[in-house]
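Need the bound structure for fructose -6-phosphate, inputs here:
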Amino acid sequence: MRILYASDYNDLSRKAANIIAAQVILKPDCVLGLATGSSPLGTYKCLIEGYEKGDLDFSRCKAANLDEYRGLPKDNDQSYAYFMYENLFKHINIDMANTNIPDGMNADAEAECKRYDEAVRALGGVDIQLLGIGHNGHIGFNEPADEFPKGTHCVDLTQSTIDANTRFFARKEDVPTQAYTMGIQTIMSAKKILLIASGEGKADIVCRMAAGPVTPNVPASVLQLHNDVTIVADKEALSVLMEKAPEMIEGLPKA
Ligand code: F6R
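Answer from helper R.:
Posting the output first, comments after.
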């Protein structure tokens, strides 16, 4: 696990985008594993800039996203399909037919999870998987549990997630209560993994992920077992690890 220091969110975004850009340049038909949430927004912005400058060509790339709310159609502005279109896909020259995301409208959870695992396998696997990390150590929607979930599966959202999402919906009954997510095995089968973390709120979990025991109680800790993981985190997100194990961090400015 390599852990790279970034001075702030912009630096983090540039570094993460450069790593993804290198992948796209070296393998123009690569498979990009993508994430939603606030962490990757800056990274996507830098990738869009790279495309606009003519440095990056996504025309042969394929993409597979981590997760999607169950019950939300693609055109709902809270769906992850909508997020990806608005924040990345519509700004670059990726072929939308080559983008993959679990179908939140497939009510048959078992069939949808099987279909998605097969779709990712049919792409030949993910070359580089971008991840954010939840405050509780979740990756995708793989929440702390007694064991690591393997393939794509349907999860019940925690009440706190449902409550937090309520503000985005006109009616309470429209708030999704479940999601489809790639499992830990699917994520771990990516050739490279790039996890980004920003802000003080992530400092404790970044330290537990990188320097704590590997346990399904901190799902991201499983990344310690992958042989090609890069973490890019900003100063705030590294503040606890900096105290406990500064030798793990590359590019730390001299005090
Ligand atoms: C998003 C996802 C989640 C987020 C995580 C961090 O597709 O799967 O695991 O990466 O919740 O979210 P932010 O970046 O909003 O802090």
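Comments: Residues 35-39, 66-67, 132-134, 138-140 surround fructose -6-phosphate (CB under 6 Å). The radius of gyration is 17 Å.
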